[in-house]
Amino acid sequence: MSDPHDRFPAGFFDRQDPDDPAFYEPARLVTHIDDAAIAAVGALYTELGIDGEVLDLMSSWVSHFETPPQRLHVLGMNPAELDANPVAAARTVHDLNADPVLPFADGSFDDAVCCVSIDYLVRPIDVVRDVARVLRPGGRFVCTFSNRCFPTKAIRGWLANSDEAHTRIVAEYFRLADVWHEPAVERRTPVTHRGDPLFAVWAVRA
Ligand SMILES: C[S@@+](CC[C@H](N)C(=O)[O-])C[C@H]1O[C@@H](n2cnc3c(N)ncnc32)[C@H](O)[C@@H]1O
């Protein structure tokens, strides 16, 4: 079977700094987008009813829910950041670029989310496909992102493209994973908003 990542130009998934364990070793207890963009993430989760057993992928000390879901499992690189997440009931340290297979059984969660992080994945289609495996029927995967990033850590294809193109790229990850219904794509902050814009791409498990 051909590799769907090969559908993107050569070098698309390369990064200036490929060493994730070293970069994420220090804890960063910061917010990566402004308050309005954070509020837009939480409002989307509320609107979609992301309130059951939820996996927050590429997580840190904040998960941005307006109301905590029934049970939140956070996965990321830095144990101190994950330990500081007040909403998390369970924490997993796992490098998705070293191993895009999630360390969870099939059908473990109702829904999954990933905030301002999809641009750091070098095998995003493998990860997006495996997210569907760990969701129950009808589960949704909600990816949100802005126009900010760690530039040495983001893939070159992200750095080379516009906000609008990012939404098309993430939607294409879902389509190429071939296990999702057609994704929804939305700009969640108004075009007149002067702070960090917030974009969302989400889909229901096929
Ligand atoms: C910009 S922060 C976003 C954190 C959080 N989602 C938020 O909304 O504030 C990027 C996060 O992605 C995680 N991450 C980066 N590379 C990763 C990898 N290879 N595998 C798993 N998680 C990763 C890091 O642990 C970090 O917490």
Outline of the structure:
The protein has helices at residues 20-23, 35-48, 79-83, 124-134, 156-159, 163-177; strands at 53-57, 71-76, 90-93, 111-115, 140-145, 184-187, 199-204. With 206 residues, it is α/β, with parallel strands linked by helices. The mean pLDDT is 96.
Q: What number of structural domains do the residues give?
A: 1
The helical percent reads: 25-40%
Quaternary assembly: single chain
Q: How would you describe the shape? A: globular
Mean pLDDT: 96
CA-CA gap between termini: 20 Å
CATH architecture: 3-Layer(aba) Sandwich
CATH fourth-tier homologous superfamily: Vaccinia Virus protein VP39
Ligand names: S-adenosylmethionine
Biggest sheet strand order reads: 3-2-1-4-5-7-6
State the CATH class: Alpha Beta
What name does the CATH topology carry? Rossmann fold
The rounded Rg comes to: 16 Å
Can you walk through the features of this model?
This protein is an alpha/beta fold and 206 residues long. The protein has one domain (15-204): Vaccinia Virus protein VP39 (Rossmann fold, 3-Layer(aba) Sandwich). The protein is 26% helix and 17% strand. The chain has a seven-stranded mixed sheet with strand order 3-2-1-4-5-7-6. Helix 4 links the parallel strand 4 (111-115) and strand 5. The longest helix is centred in the last third of the chain and has 15 residues, at 163-177. The chain is globular. It starts with 19 loop residues before the first helix and ends with a strand. The relative contact order is 0.19. The structure holds S-adenosylmethionine. The site of S-adenosylmethionine has 18 residues, from loops. S-adenosylmethionine binds at residues 20, 24, 32, 58-60, 62, 76-78, 81, 95-97, 115-117, 120.
